[in-house]
Automatic annotation (TrEMBL):
Positions of region (Disordered): 208-247
Binding site for [2Fe-2S] cluster: C131, C136, C173, C177
Cofactor(s) annotated in UniProt: [2Fe-2S] cluster
Provenance organism: Ceriporiopsis subvermispora (strain B) (White-rot fungus)
Protein's name in the database: Uncharacterized protein
Matches recorded under PANTHER family: NADH DEHYDROGENASE [UBIQUINONE] FLAVOPROTEIN 2, MITOCHONDRIAL (PTHR10371:SF3), NADH DEHYDROGENASE UBIQUINONE FLAVOPROTEIN 2, MITOCHONDRIAL (PTHR10371)
NCBIfam families found in the cross-reference section: nuoE_fam (TIGR01958)
GO biological process, one term: mitochondrial electron transport, NADH to ubiquinone
Keyword Translocase: yes
Annotated family: Belongs to the complex I 24 kDa subunit family.
Any one of the GO CC terms: membrane protein complex
Amino acid sequence: MFAARLSKRLPHPRARVPARNISVTACRKSDALFVHRDTTYNNPKIPFEFNEENTKRAKEIISHYPPQYKKAAVIPLLDLGQRQNKGWTSISVMNYVARLLEMPPMRVYEVATFYTMFNRSPIGEHFVQVCTTTPCMLRGSYDILDTICSHLGGIKPGDTTKDGKFTVIEVECQGACSNAPMMAVGDDFYEDLTPETTKKVIEAFAKGEKPKAGPQSGRHTSENSAGLTALTSKPYGPGEFCTPEFS
């Protein structure tokens, strides 16, 4: 009897809604930055040690720290090793730095995988980093990136040209926002870029030349493009315009 009353109170069953399929993309591994896998060109059996010049430089760097804190030199020594190793930090470089600083290798791996300044795979002779963060993006950085990739034979960001001369990547802010759009090639910044000036810079490197770094628009550093508008008069010296008691 209770079941009969309950059945009268239950709402009519709703029409069945067809199940919605969920689209998923193919799984891609993204552990290249954090996991080492031995290859023919990157494995612990490949010897590495600083050359004579860098050995002296390493000792000088380590001397800046108290003996018990010499592990603080891990970043500059990894950078030194990367420069000697043609622009990238191999597992052998990391292990050598660990031995030099008497650190557990894992502590060095943690540093090398955290900072994007350390390249974990071989790069080209010229390492081109194009900034596409908001200020540069608003000034046309994607046009700059497309210009470089197409000019280098249609490569994509992250690729290296077949001749091994250029590696191009897309990066976040490099701190030259007032000179956007910009890119870094090696240690130098090239700013105020247009597709035309970008091509000239890339072509110069391709010819073995070293184009002048900095703004490519003709302005000096990051001065106002409309000319000097502040500090146009001689600045006053110390003590001027002070009340007598502070003179």
